Amino acid sequence: MSEIERIEKSLSLVDHVDTLPIPDGAIVSGFWPIRDEIDLRPLMDKLRQKGHPLCLPAIAEPHLQFRKLERGAELVPAGFGTMEPAASAEVLRPDVMLMPLSGFDRDGNRLGYGKGHYDTAIAAFEMEAPVLCIGVAFSVQEVDRVPVEAHDKPLNGILTEVGYRAFG
């Protein structure tokens, strides 16, 4: 996919913001895109305009920490070419997680990057309350089947440049 095509498809995510099943005022986590991932920063800005508090993941122990994302706040390199809010940012518990992935299937299974960071964080959060997990990717990232392990949590839905699709 060309850079221009990636940019155009990333921008089209905003066209589908009103189809997302995000409750009013829900805290939404996003991600800072790396390499050739879809760029959801325009979508995140639209969600901010709609009144959603935003956060980004930061590598921490025992699992990912989600730090508040505010306009003009300091972002620091987090490895792998991504950025995260500085350690001084407020830690939030997301109600909705917009998640990166390398592939997904029609059953809502997500192929991540192999470290299990999201699975561990989701398991910890869900001890308190459910988390709405929405994958964000290009439609060409859909595959026939994603291998599933016992700890893998399926996505509730997927957002691509084509629109939102619920699973389950």
List the helices and strands and how they pair.
Elements: H1 3-11, E1 28-29, H2 41-49, E2 54-58, E3 65-69, E4 75-77, E5 83-85, E6 91-92, E7 96-99, E8 103-104, E9 110-111, H3 117-125, E10 132-136, E11 157-160, E12 163-166
Proportion of strand residues: 15-25%
Q: Tally of extended strands?
A: 12
Q: Distance N terminus to C terminus?
A: 30 Å
- How are the strands of the largest sheet arranged? 6-3-2-1-7-10-11-12
Number of helices: 3
CATH class label: Alpha Beta
Under the CATH scheme, the architecture is 3-Layer(aba) Sandwich
**Fraction in helix:** 10-25%
Along the chain, the helix and strand elements come as HEHEEEEEEEEHEEE
| Biggest β-sheet description | 8 strands, mixed
Structurally, how many domains make up the residues?
A: 1
CATH topology: Rossmann fold
Mean pLDDT, nearest integer? 93
Provide structural commentary:
The structure is a single chain. With 168 residues, this protein is α/β, with parallel strands linked by helices. It contains three helices and twelve strands. The chain has a single domain (3-166), classed as NagB/RpiA/CoA transferase-like (Rossmann fold), CATH 3.40.50. 16% of the residues lie in helices and 24% in strands. The strands form three sheets. The protein has an eight-stranded mixed β-sheet with strand order 6-3-2-1-7-10-11-12. Strand 11 and strand 12 form a beta hairpin. The longest helix is centred in the first third of the chain and has 9 residues, at 3-11.
